[in-house]
Amino acid sequence: MTKRVVLKPQNLEFIVEEGQTVLEAALNQNLAFPHRCMVGACASCLCRIESGAVDYDLEPLLTEKEKQQGWMFSCLAYPKSDLVITFGDE
Ligand code: FES
């Protein structure tokens, strides 16, 4: 099942196919999504989930507090639902 992701603050929307990470899907759709290592090491792709949930094959290194705040590694995250994510601070 595909999932819909809205990227704030620009409100860009893209589709994530089954088996794709959020980052892969964004890059496939030519969005300028920050990234470098693609393996959860550099933290360039960190963004915050405003709504929705993701799953990981390999749990990234996030503290409980960071998880509660919604931080996500886009290069490792598989959406479990439609998502709203942000690079903004609010
Ligand atoms: S691209 Fe490096 S942690 Fe995601």
From TrEMBL:
<keyword id="KW-0411">Iron-sulfur</keyword>
<keyword id="KW-0001">2Fe-2S</keyword>
<feature type="domain" description="2Fe-2S ferredoxin-type">
    <location>
        <begin position="3"/>
        <end position="90"/>
    </location>
</feature>
<dbReference type="GO" id="GO:0046872">
    <property type="term" value="F:metal ion binding"/>
</dbReference>
<keyword id="KW-0479">Metal-binding</keyword>
<keyword id="KW-0249">Electron transport</keyword>
<dbReference type="GO" id="GO:0051537">
    <property type="term" value="F:2 iron, 2 sulfur cluster binding"/>
</dbReference>
<dbReference type="InterPro" id="IPR036010">
    <property type="entry name" value="2Fe-2S_ferredoxin-like_sf"/>
</dbReference>
<keyword id="KW-0408">Iron</keyword>
<dbReference type="InterPro" id="IPR012675">
    <property type="entry name" value="Beta-grasp_dom_sf"/>
</dbReference>
<dbReference type="InterPro" id="IPR001041">
    <property type="entry name" value="2Fe-2S_ferredoxin-type"/>
</dbReference>
<dbReference type="InterPro" id="IPR006058">
    <property type="entry name" value="2Fe2S_fd_BS"/>
</dbReference>
<dbReference type="Pfam" id="PF00111">
    <property type="entry name" value="Fer2"/>
</dbReference>
<keyword id="KW-0813">Transport</keyword>
<comment type="similarity">
    <text>Belongs to the 2Fe2S plant-type ferredoxin family.</text>
</comment>
<protein>
    <submittedName>
        <fullName>2Fe-2S iron-sulfur cluster-binding protein</fullName>
    </submittedName>
</protein>
